Amino acid sequence: MSLHPRVAIVTGGGRGIGRAMALALAGAGARVIVSSARENAEIAAVADEAERRCGERRIVAMVADVTRDGDCARLVAAATDCFGRLDVLVNNAGRGMKYVSETFITEPTRFWDVAPETWRMVIDTNVVGPFLMARAAAPVMIAAGWGRIVNISMNHETMRRRGFSPYGPSKAALDSETIIWAQDLAGTGVTVNALLPGGVTLTGMIPDGVAPELRAQALDPAIMARRSSGSPPSGRTASPAGASSPPAGGRTSPKRKPPRPRRTWPGGRLGRTGAPPARAIAGPPAARAGERRALPAPRRRASGPASSRRESP
Known about the structure:
Helices cover 31% and strands 15% of the residues.
């Protein structure tokens, strides 16, 4: 599948998941803006790697901090100025638990031991950053009548995992943003979805001191650069593990694969070595624009002594 002449922005594109997705998009023919808050050398290396693979310059590297609305507007302007359009936004930039503690995997940090400035830094990057980027990109996509916003998320188990504040709460907030924004954009031609790898992934968020046997269990970030058949409705979560080609706007869901043994990570499950089936982020699918859904009738209590009362359907 060719993505030419699509144009994408991938935040946090210098390493890990962002790097894999940027190279896959460029390899499929898209033009890509990759950003990093500080590491210019990393994103420049990604642009050079894409040029070697593709035979032409398809990636533009830019230093930009997604927690600053001016930098987010500058990224969107770069896409339209360089390539005349913006079709895809991948909100990948994020900060993880290693900013709280290098030993967070084996020694959970209690929430009251987290420094307030660290909490704000993670929330600003993982929650405010995607908002500022989507806010800057949405008007351009709406005007074009087409667009794909992809928020990189993680599984619900990690969101609720002991000792994972503020990373878990930040990703729970991102899932909520995904659902709400998808509804806000209904009918515009712009969709919003969350994409997750299906398990712990070997990115810069994993501290260097993690034991080799644990690192060996982690997924390769390249798994996020694969495509599968089918796509979830806007506002849903999908996982590309087990798929086979670059994403078209990131709207992917896994192909079914035979079950594999589960592996464990300290404090919780790593998940299958493949990915779980695509699932809704929360509850039943949202009603379509203009559609009304009735709430279930309240249950009635049977009359009689309190000791013998029971609920009837």
